[in-house]
Design goal:
heterodimer, A: alpha/beta, 8 helices, elongated, B: alpha/beta, Alpha-Beta Plaits, FAD/NAD(P)-binding domain, 5-stranded parallel beta sheet, 4-stranded parallel beta sheet, binds flavin-adenine dinucleotide, binds iron/sulfur cluster
């Protein structure tokens, strides 16, 4: 396993910024165009555009095409929460040949327009700052590869009560060699000590 | 049970304990202690001749010590595997068993415990539960009054394979009881011992009452309960059946049991809350349905397996709703009651569920993990600079992912074990560790961006990914409005929130800073939050001493379910800022800047930080220019 680099300070950056409308979820509170224009003035930003729904196929395709057309090596998506769509956009950029960890999101929906509907001006300022923050982080992002580890295809189940026995049987039936470890001289756990058991009232062994 | 022992792919190791677990997902090395049975398993045919001739009797744990077993024994006649054990503590070395075993020569007193190492890819922990000992509850007289027994004792006495062949008798006079009481929630739902519900005792008390009533319809049975809990399929019907059979139910926890010393009959004192009556009723026998509690060695196992425990002591799952079978350690899963009391149907279901979680890993010869891990700069580690690794990082790591092989060798991160909490990164006094995707330079650049313009008006909010960031999301999703002056930054765990970031935020002129992570029991990195919390309270003291206005630095633990709290905290923080006249705030910020700078002397030397500062100067210029033109 080669050690991955924490930062890359010398790379010449070509950042693309996408500001999502999310229908009216974002565009109903702020004007995405203003964020797009703002982003154009930030260092290394070579392309900045609105998108109606960044997560939709059309939005993803727009990003993928731009990566090739503008030769982008960083992508910023100002849209919703990373908990919602980070995986989506990581997938999209990697389909266009960009390392997924070179995509950064700014959460201007859950943490901006949805939370500051009463303060449109404040929301716009915040959306700009969050977008700038993502651009800033992207300056120091590096390509990262998933870490691959080998797997010993063998299992261990510790404790041979009814839960452990059930787990071991299912693993073994799936073809996996399984060691079932029990500290007492017999397997069975508490269930083996019980009289008939609810709900079926059958014998417990 | 027999199916498991017969399965060609299951290797059953009884009388065996886990001694040590090393490695990481896909690559665990487990050391097992196979305790000496003094019987050679392959030779023993289970005939039991040894037990028949053995002259020594000791109480059998399996029968809750109500019946004896020999020193040469199996816990029960259906033991799996059916291999006898010699209990050396009880044995008097008469060697009658050796003679009885004869030509089989299965008994071997020279056996010793064996330590064996096994390489495995994933493991399922299913160590179950134990039983609350009601003798600590003086009011019920268990162990003082012979006819007060526990539910587990009841299970053995009422069991056709048990010591009385299923004939339930009173320990005081061996008579069959005619009037019985069951008391529920003994040690459960009781703040003194165990605040939670034990899940299955309502159901088994009904079960045992029905079984007794079926055997003898004339017995009189009362179940004392607080609430009857029957939430699974068919369970309420089971309860209905008990009532139709004439089993009595009395709501209210009994306060006292007294005994007639002559007859050994018992008097249960209680207040029936539905009748509103204080009662004292006489019984032949009383069953205490004792709480399910964690195994006595659960703390020990939790450190061997490197998994966390919930407040009650049970093993803690990765996420109670979304990843209930996973432990926080990749490749380690839970099933059954070790994670909290559950009945047989749920335990079986969990066993299957855990096996499917484990087989996701085991079906392939490799596994991928997120690369957002810690990385050491060996040249900065004190091992290199001063010849002595301080070891702070290794101590901080919740996963034991950091090796320091000798005082002179720099710390090493075992990448596959690292979960990327960032605790070591923030704790290292030499700034010799960073975290991929969450480097100091990246975070500093973000801070500079959001504090570029009117920093004194801003509330910089550090949030952990799993909880507080989720709480902020939920605030938005629920449209709980809060101050738009908040500027959020995300790290994976509060453990990553370096003191340098906080000082730097104030040096850059931030109005307020929020330091926010999960509640300790929700931490996705076992003990990450504890590290973050300790650091935060240190910072609180420092800022207090500096004379910073109360509330400009705030520490809050906010779960992903607490959107309302996130909004409230932010609004309160805004109110604090609103209360300080702008001139005073600016003066305070300026006054404290030198204090911050003093503490940040080493910060520019951290790898990447100087570059981030240089870049940020350009960025801040651009941001200000853009905002002016707008
Ligand atoms: C009185 C009573 C009556 C009950 N009646 C019913 C009923 O009628 N119906 C029903 O559905 N449920 C009933 N239950 C609940 C039932 O007992 C549990 O659901 C079930 O036993 C849980 O199974 P388990 O495998 O998780 O744990 P356990 O049965 O506790 O099994 C755990 C196993 O792990 C082993 N072990 C523990 N630590 C280690 C270690 N460190 N290394 C190796 N092995 C270890 C133990 O020796 C044990 O064999 C009853 C419970 C009680 C107390
Ligand atoms: S299951 Fe019933 S008896 Fe058991 S602790 Fe819960 S409420 Fe009490
Ligand atoms: S805390 Fe830092 S200096 Fe100390 S051993 Fe770990 S890496 Fe080295
Ligand atoms: S402390 Fe956290 S980041 Fe550091 S090695 Fe351990 S798991 Fe990884």
């Amino acid at each position: 396993m080669t050690q991955q680099q924490p930062e890359n300070n010398n790379e010449k950056l070509r950042v693309g910024v996408y500001v999502c409308h999310c229908g009216t979820n974002i565009a109903g509170v702020i004007d995405p165009k203003e964020v797009v224009e703002f982003a154009k003035g930030l260092p290394d930003v070579v392309h900045s555009a609105e998108t109606l729904y960044a997560c939709a196929d059309s939005g993803q395709n727009q990003i993928k095409e731009d990566i090739k057309k503008h030769n982008l090596n960083r992508v910023i998506v100002s849209a919703c929460s990373v908990r919602m769509h980070e995986a989506t956009f990581r997938g999209a950029v990697s389909e266009a040949g960009l390392n997924p960890f070179l995509m950064e999101m700014a959460n201007i929906r859950e943490q901006c327009t949805w939370a500051h509907g009463h303060d449109r001006e404040g929301a716009l300022e915040k959306a700009k700052d969050l977008t700038a923050s993502a651009v800033a982080k992207s300056r120091f992002l590096t390509s990262l590869d998933m870490i691959e580890v080998p797997v010993t295809q063998k299992a261990m189940v510790i404790g041979a009560g009814v839960a452990g026995i059930s787990a071991a049987l299912d693993l073994a039936d799936q073809g996996i060699q399984t060691i079932l470890v029990e500290k007492e001289p017999t397997i069975g756990g508490v269930m083996a000590q019980l009289n008939k058991t609810f709900p079926t009232m059958d014998c417990s062994i | 049970m027999v199916d498991a022992a017969r399965h060609p792919r299951i290797d059953v190791r009884t009388f065996t304990e886990v001694e040590k677990v090393e490695g990481f997902v896909g690559n665990f090395k487990v050391t097992l202690r196979e305790k000496a049975k003094y019987v050679i398993a392959d030779r023993c045919n289970g005939c039991g001749d040894c037990a028949r001739v053995c002259p020594i009797e000791v109480p059998n744990y399996f029968d809750m010590n109500l019946a004896p077993r020999k020193a040469a024994y199996v816990p029960m006649s259906q033991s799996v595997p059916l291999v006898y054990n010699i209990d050396l503590d009880a044995c008097i070395h008469c060697y009658k068993c050796v003679d009885a075993c004869g030509a089989l020569e299965a008994i071997d007193f020279s056996q010793e415990d064996q330590l064996v190492e096994e390489d495995i890819g994933a493991m399922i922990v299913a160590t179950g539960f134990s039983h609350f000992d009601p003798s600590v509850m003086d009011e019920y007289g268990y162990s003082r009054y012979p006819n007060v027994i526990t539910s587990m004792e009841m299970e053995r006495l009422n069991n056709s394979a048990g010591p009385t062949a299923g004939n339930l008798i009173r320990p005081s006079d061996n008579k069959n009881p005619q009037k019985l009481a069951f008391i529920n929630c003994v040690g459960s739902r009781d703040k003194r011992y165990n605040p939670s519900c034990s899940n299955f005792c309502c159901m088994y008390s009904i079960k045992n009452a029905i079984l007794l009533k079926q055997m003898n319809p004339n017995v009189d049975i009362t179940i004392y309960y607080i609430d009857i809990r029957t939430p699974s399929k068919g369970y309420e019907e089971f309860y209905d059946r008990a009532r139709e059979m004439g089993i009595h139910f009395s709501q209210g926890r009994p306060s006292l049991i007294t005994e007639d010393p002559e007859t050994h009959n018992l008097f249960v004192h209680s207040e029936d809350v539905t009748l509103g009556k204080v009662m004292e009723k006489e019984y032949d026998m009383v069953m205490l349905n004792q709480a399910a509690v964690p195994q006595p060695d659960q703390n020990h196992m939790s450190s061997v397996l490197n998994v966390a425990q919930s407040p009650g002591g049970w093993f803690m799952e990765y996420h109670p709703k979304l990843r209930p079978m996973d432990s926080p350690t990749d490749g380690v899963f839970f099933a059954g009651a070790c994670q909290g009391p559950k009945d047989i149907p749920s335990s079986v279901a969990q066993g299957s569920a855990a096996s499917s979680r484990a087989s996701r890993i085991l079906q392939s010869d490799h596994w991928e993990i997120e690369p957002t891990v810690a990385v050491v700069f060996p040249e900065r580690c004190s091992a290199t600079t001063r010849g002595r690794a301080c070891g702070i990082c290794a101590k901080a790591c919740p996963y034991g992912a950091i090796n320091i092989f000798s005082p002179e060798t720099p710390a090493e991160v075992v990448t596959a074990k690292c979960h990327g909490c960032g605790a070591c990164v923030a704790e290292c006094p030499e700034d010799a560790i960073t975290q991929l995707h969450f480097t100091d330079a990246q975070i500093l650049a973000q801070m500079r961006a959001v504090l570029a313009d009117k920093p004194e008006e801003k509330i910089l909010a550090f949030r952990c990914h799993w909880c507080s960031y989720g709480g902020a999301d939920l605030a938005g999703t629920s449209h709980f409005e809060y101050s738009a002056n908040e500027r959020g930054l995300r790290v994976m765990c509060s453990a990553r929130m370096d003191t340098d970031f906080i000082y730097e935020a104030y040096r850059l002129g931030a109005g307020s800073v929020l330091y926010s992570g999960c509640h300790p029991q929700d931490c996705h990195y076992i003990t990450g939050q504890l590290i973050g919390a300790k650091r935060a309270s240190r910072l609180e003291k420092i800022f207090d001493k500096m004379g910073m206005t109360d509330g400009r630095f705030r520490v809050e633990w906010i779960s992903a379910a607490e959107g309302d709290k996130y909004a409230r905290v932010l609004n309160e923080m805004q109110a604090v800022l609103d209360d300080i006249p702008m001139e005073d705030l600016k003066a305070e910020i300026e006054k404290l800047k030198p204090e911050m700078s003093k503490r940040l002397k080493k910060f520019p030397g951290v790898p990447g930080v100087q570059e981030a500062m240089d870049y940020s100067d350009i960025l801040v210029d651009a941001i200000t220019k853009q905002k002016e033109t707008a």
